[in-house]
Design goal:
By secondary structure, this protein is an alpha+beta fold. Helix content is 50%, strand content 15%. Bound molecules: flavin-adenine dinucleotide.
Amino acid sequence: MDVGLDEGQALLVGGARDFARSELLERDRRWDETDETVAEVLPALAEMGFLNICIPQELGGLGCSYETYVRILHEIAYASPSTAVTLSVHNMVGNILAVWAQEPKRSEWLGRWGGTESFAAFAVSEAGAGSDPASSTTKTEKVAGGWKISGEKMWITNGLTGSWFLTMARTAPKSEGKVFSAFLVPGDAPGLERAPMHGKMGIRGSETAVISYDEVFCPDNHLVGPEGKAMQVFMSGLDGGRLGIAAQATGIAEACLDEMVSYARERKQFGQLIGRFQAIQTMIADSAVELAAAKELILRAARYIDAGKTSPAASAQAKLFASEAANRIAYRAVQVHGGSGYVHEYRVEQLYRDARVTTIYEGTSEIQRIVIARSVLRQ
Ligand SMILES: Cc1cc2nc3c(=O)[nH]c(=O)nc-3n(C[C@H](O)[C@H](O)[C@H](O)COP(=O)(O)OP(=O)(O)OC[C@H]3O[C@@H](n4cnc5c(N)ncnc54)[C@H](O)[C@@H]3O)c2cc1C
């Protein structure tokens, strides 16, 4: 993915690659087996500038384009898919604030976005509201100086140590339709409780939590975007967010391909290296092509965002293709390893599980197809 980068971008992406492979890879393997999480590397991620990748430089961010951002996330995901989703969600919230928050709060929040004390979560999904966020039941009551929020959010990434929760809640009665607003809720607000969700198939180093709001007070100036416009706020963020997940998927896929190739170069059967069998070569070739295609779709969608063009369909195409391809590639990686691919000692076993969620969160593959089809039918 390094082709076409200027010197500064190449340094950042190369730095991410070195950091990820030296500091995250071993830890990610440990997080898969224990209750420990990415939280332990937050200070190092902050030090590298990875908590405010696209935030403008005048506010202390790295000021990267989306094109550079997705390349950084790809490198992180290669070594640690759990860290990649952690960063993707936190950075997505920052990118949303950069567009929708009002001054002076915008500068106040983003000026500190690169520090661990600003670690953020995106709280939309509920037990009964996943693909259809408009069926959320989290509600508000208008009080002097702000709002009281009550309800329960589920599946919230970064939910255990997050300091901010960008929360979607209803701000008008159901009879008035889909009237939701976005609030930046402080994690230490009285009435906000968090509980870990255990038993995930993969990305076990990433925090996933249930967040309950019991009349949590949120001041008026923590409203993000106009009142009643949460759908626009969240959907605009998801264009970039979906690219973060797509880059997570290609990072996983590239790691799978590298594992496949090195195993094919060392494992012998029938007196020869398995890499000499055409069946194995086909799996490697198909994976290399799909990976290259996925990266191109991601870069294309990132360039749309960098050019200030709205293209939900381009992000949806990238996310759909990259996540489905990552799952196919992970499947082949296990297959190339034979029985060894089925045990934890070999990394492909974990990557196979880590890849699975990429077709589910930030919009399932079925939802991406709806976004794409609507756009094609409109043209
Ligand atoms: C590890 C993890 C982390 C997550 N992190 C976050 C987070 O940080 N913040 C957050 O808000 N959410 C988060 N989520 C939630 C995630 O976005 C939802 O799980 C996802 O949107 C799917 O919703 P659901 O699980 O309710 O499935 P459902 O919406 O119930 O879908 C079930 C099935 O029905 C299909 N389906 C639904 N509607 C349609 C339709 N109209 N047409 C065709 N098929 C359809 C789906 O594609 C799927 O196959 C996370 C989820 C996981 C697993």
